[in-house]
Amino acid sequence: MSGRIVVVAMRCEECGFDFADVTSAVASGEIVARAESFASVLDRADPEAGPRRVGGRWTTLEYGGHVRDMLVVQRERVLMARMHDVPEATPMGRDERAEWAEYEGLDASELARQVRDCADWLARTFSLLGPDHWQRRLVYTYPERAERTLEWLAANVVHELVHHEMDIRHNLRTGQEGRS
């Protein structure tokens, strides 16, 4: 598979995110800005609402926990791609973490702080990459197995932040908890 770089989604049909808008020049700033926006919405979540799924949708706290964990996992993937030639990104177990109740009992404001902190940490890691590092590759297995660059990975992080902010805004607007 070496040398095969596949850009899966240039534009997300659900949230309108365009991967081409995130380049190495703006990635760190976009991660911090989008994480701040996500965390600000999470801060407004009703701390008394508690987790309750509707129609299989994740709850606001599950989205918050997922985003926090995604930021940590993506940072480790960046470091792994710097240390090894085209390593495989191990799946993070996003659905399993929710099923295992990893996100039950979380405090929305504490989770918002953690999202901000993890985003700052990941953005710093990206900001330390030299021009030649942005094209380092790793094998990403979702939604299909393909080699991706670290620049694509940064855009994917921003997409996750944008998309899941849309999800929690939907939850808060409709009074529902849950995952689309």
From TrEMBL:
GO terms for molecular function: isomerase activity. Residues 37-164 form the DinB-like domain. It comes from the Bacteria. The keyword Isomerase applies. The keyword Isomerase applies. Keywords: Isomerase. This is Maleylpyruvate isomerase N-terminal domain-containing protein. It comes from Georgenia halophila.
